[in-house]
Input
Amino acid sequence: MPEKTESPFGLWTSPITPRSLAEDRRLEAARWDSDGRTIVWLEGRSGRGVLLAQSSPADAPRELAPDWDVRAEVAYGGGDFAAHGGCVYFVVHKTGRLYRLALSGGRARPITPAFGKAASPAVSPDGRWVVYVHQDDEENDRLAIVDTEGSHWPQVLASGRDFYMQPAWSPDGKRLAWIAWDQPQMPWDGALLCSARIVLNDGILPRLGEVEVLAGGPEVAVQQPEFTPDGRYLLFISDETGWGRIARMDLRTRDCRWLTPEGIDYGPPAWVQGMRSYAITHEGRHVVAAGSCLGRHMLSRIDLATGESSTIEPLAEYHEVAQIATSPQTGRFVFVGSGPSLPPRVVEHDLESSATRIVARASAEAVRPDALAQCEPVSWTSSDGEEVHGLFYAPASDRFVGAGKPPLVVLVHGGPTSQARAGWNSQVQFFATRGYAVLLVNYRGSTGYGRQYMLTLRGNWGRYDVEDCVAAVGHFAAAGRIDPSRTVIMGGSAGGFTVLQTMIDHPEAFAAGVCLYGVANQFHLASQTHKFEARYLDSLLGPLPEAAPRYRQRSPVLHADRIRRPVAIFQGDLDRVVPREQSDAIVEALRRNRTPHLYHVYEGEGHGWRKRETIEHFYRTVESFLRQYVLFA
Output
C-alpha cells in the first residue's frame, strides 16, 4: 500500500463526489410474488420510482411500467406496491391510483379511480381482492377494498379512526388485521391492533364483521401484524414492556408470548406505510427479524415455538436492515441492507443453504472499504448528567493523513422521533473522506434505546436535543478527537430546527450551521403542517394555547437576532411538511441582522431531495460554504 500524503483535514480529495452521490439510486422495498420465485423491488432514480422484477437468478432484471412514477403519498409515503398471482399492484405518483400489471408484460391498468391517495395494497390469498389504505382530499383516512380486476367501485372497509396502516390478510382469507390510531397520538406513542372477520357478499365487495381490538392502547405502540401460515397465531410488535418486542398471540385463546427479549428494539418508529422489520418463514416455524442495539441492526432467525434466537452470521456486515420479506414457497428471504462502508443493496439469502445473492445495488460500489469511514457506537454525558448515545466516524482516506485535530460535523437526525443507524450514510462518507470527523447524535428522544429514552423528549424538544449536541462537542474535544474551534452542526426538518435553536441558545458552540428545511416557527408548523403531524407538537412542546410561551421560546424566527455564526439554509419549494414560508422567514430575520448566510430554494423538490441536479448542487454548495466559514475562517 503506498504511503499516505499529509494534507490538511477537510481538504482531502475524496472519491465520493457530488456527482457520484447524485447518480446513486434509492432502494425502497422488495417483495416476493406468491410463486416464491419472482422478486419485485422499487428503485428511486432521481425524481422517479421505478419497479423492477427478476424471476430467477438466471434471468436479467427488467423494468416494469417504465412510463409510470411509482410512489405512494399517504403522509410520508411507503407501501408503494404489492405482488401476487403473477401481477404487481402499485400506486402512481400524483394520481394516487392503484394499478395492476402482469409480471409477464403488457400494459398497466388502473383498478381504482383518481380520487384521493392509496397506499399499502394487500392482496387476498385467493387473488380476488385488494385492501389498501386510502386518504381522501380532506385527509380523512380509512381502509378500502377493491376487486383485483377493478370492475367494482371501491368500498370503505373500516373508518372512524384518524389513521390506518399495515393491513394483513389471514392465510385463509377469512380475517383481516391492521393498525389504527387517533390524534394526538403518533403511532409510536400509542396505537391499536385491530382485527375483524371478512364477510362475503354474493358478487359484491366483502365487508367486515365486528371489529375487535387485540392489543395496544394510548400508551402502548403496536405495529406490523402478520398471521402465521396455519392461521393459528398473529404476530405483531409491541413496546408494552418498554422495548419494541415481537409478540405471538394465539387467536383461539388470545394468550400472548414474547418471542424477543428486552434490550433489543425490533419496532422502528412508523413514519411510513409498508414497514417490515420481520417476516415469518414459509413453513411457519421461524421468524427472520432485524433488531436494533446501540444503533446497529442484527439479523436473527427466531424459533416461533420456543423463542430461541440465532444470529444469521453470513449477513453480519449489514448493520441497517429494512423491508424483510420471506418467500411464500422456499426458505429464502430478501431485504434492503447496508453497512457503514457498504452502500444499500437488495439482498437474497437462503436459510437452508446459507447462500447469499445480491439482487440490486444502489451504487457502483467503486470506492474501496479501506477508503471509507467506519462506525463507532459512542456515548457521553449531557449537561444534566444523563447518558446520550451516538455514532462516531473518524476521518478516513487511503491516500491522505492529517496533522493536528480534525474539524467536526455534528449531524442531527430528523423526526425528531427517529434514530441515526450504522448503515450507509452518504453525508457521513462525503465529509469523513474529506477529512472531517462526523458524529451522528441520537439525542434523548431518539428511538432504538427503549421507550423511556424516547419519551424523554416529551415537552423537551428544543432543549434536550440542543443540550446533547453541545455536550457532544465538549466530550470529543476533551478526548482530543476533534478541533473544538472548527465544528459544524447540520440537520434537516426537525434536525434543522435543532440547528437553529442551538445557534440561538449557544451562539458560540459551533463555527457554522447547515439547515435543511428546518422548522423555524412552531405556531406556523402547528397550524399548517399535514395531518399526520398536525398534533405532534402536543407531546413535543405541549398543547395550545396552554403551551404558547414554550412555542414562542422555541420558535427560532422570533430569536434569530441571537444567531451570530454563519448559517446555510436549503429548502424545497413544494415542501408541505415544513412549508417554504418557514425558511423565508428565518432568512429574512438573518438579513435584518446582517448574519452571514446563504439561501437556496430548489424548484420541484419537497421534504428532501430527489432530483440528481439538486443533490449535486447541494453537496457542492455545502462544501464551498464550509471551506469559507469553517476551514478558512
